[in-house]
Write the structure tokens for this entry.
Amino acid sequence: MGEETIALNRKARHDYTIDDTLEAGIVLTGTEIKSIRAHRVNLGDGYVRVERGEAWLVGAHIAPFEGGNRMNHEAKRTRKLLLHRSQIVELGVRMKAKGMTIIPLRLYIDARGHAKLELGIGRGKKLYDRRRDIAERDSRRDMERQLADVSRGR
């Protein structure tokens, strides 16, 4: 069995120019991993903060487990990320660069059954950058459509 994608942050590539990606483990409680396996996750508002030599996932929503009891987890709690020390230092340095941010791109379960988070290091897009991306995507679709019509003999 390979990896299974649980949640995608579709807004991330729209709102940010992603320069680099890396994989991180995530510290979870028992009810959180059960909710993740039930695909009850939203990464849309999440971001990563580096504090005192540790990386933290802030703002990601993992719904409380329906079969849980009073010991169920908080939906938007801050979760620790598992990275090598050198990766955390590099993330801290890159975050201090003007306009750089670290955002979760994808949450998945790897072949060993562990929850992993794909992080993107990028810079926020301006409104005109987003418009240009949309225009490029539309023109690319039009060209592909015209090529398909020509190859069909229309």
